[in-house]
Amino acid sequence: MNPEFIHTYVSVDCVVFGFDYENRLNILLVQRHVENMPVDSQKKLPGSLIFSDEDVDDAANRVMYELTGIKKMVLKQFKCFADPARASNQNDIKWMGTEYKHNIDRIITVAYLALCKIDHKINSSKYDTVDWHPIDKVPQLPFDHNKIISESLIEIRKWMETDFSIIFELLPKKFTIRMLYQLYSAVSEKQIDIKNFHKKISSFSYIIQLEEIEQNVSHRAARYYRFDPKIYKKTHNKLIK
């Protein structure tokens, strides 16, 4: 065997997006434990080494189930991170030795993007602490997790451009046009006039106007809408033929 070949471990890391009631884009972070380090500096992306009998997709689904308690979630594999120095920090090395009971000198991770309605109850079977963090207030994370998050934002924008329906995975079942507008603006980072956005959205047959309006709000009450995946599928199929 060529001595330059690497002996390495493979992991998965998941970036889980949610959209909160203050209309902010969030991600889920978990708590790791490293001795003599402040608790606030020990947040990380949820992830795991893959088992010997697992495909990477199976490992990502396992991580998501252990994280949320939800069996079926939208997951997308988007990039592999393999910088030789990504696990060179001494605190990261120490944590890996404690967590996995192995001497790990090189680790490659396959990153996944996941979408979760923020009103889902997070019922983690693995982590004691699981918290939503606004995307613009993410702390300094271990390994290259901040880079993974930045790359995931680029990926979700591409994903949304090719399949607009994924945006509704982040919204509640009934939503206002303003909520949809604020989510789209947060993900795409585009400055769009809300009146033009409302006009465009109103032309989409798969966004169904409801009879309900907001209750007990300080501003003018807005009408609720819902997304119809069956109509979207028919419409989308026609567009791509």
Compact description:
With 241 residues, the protein is of the alpha+beta class. It has 6 helices and 10 strands. 31% of the residues lie in helices and 24% in strands.
SSE arrangement:
Layout (H helix, E strand, L loop, with lengths): L8 E11 L5 E7 L11 E2 L2 E3 L6 H13 L5 E8 L8 H11 L6 E9 L14 E5 L10 H18 L11 E2 L1 H12 L5 H9 L4 E7 L9 E5 L1 H12 L1
Parallel strand pairs: 1-6
Antiparallel strand pairs: 1-2, 1-4, 2-3, 2-7, 5-6, 8-10, 9-10
Describe this structure in words.
- The strands form 2 sheets. Strands 1, 2, 3, 4, 5, 6 and 7 form a 7-stranded mixed beta sheet that branches.
- The chain is of the alpha+beta class.
- The protein is built from 6 helices and 10 strands, in the order ββββαβαββαβααββα.
Strand fraction equals 15-25%
Structural class of the secondary structure composition? alpha+beta
Rg from C-alpha positions?
Answer: 20 Å
Average pLDDT taken over every residue? 86
- Largest sheet at a glance? 7 strands, mixed
Instruction: Write down the overall geometry.
Output: elongated
Helix content: 25-40%
Low-confidence stretches: none
Distance between the termini: 50 Å
How many H/I helices?
6
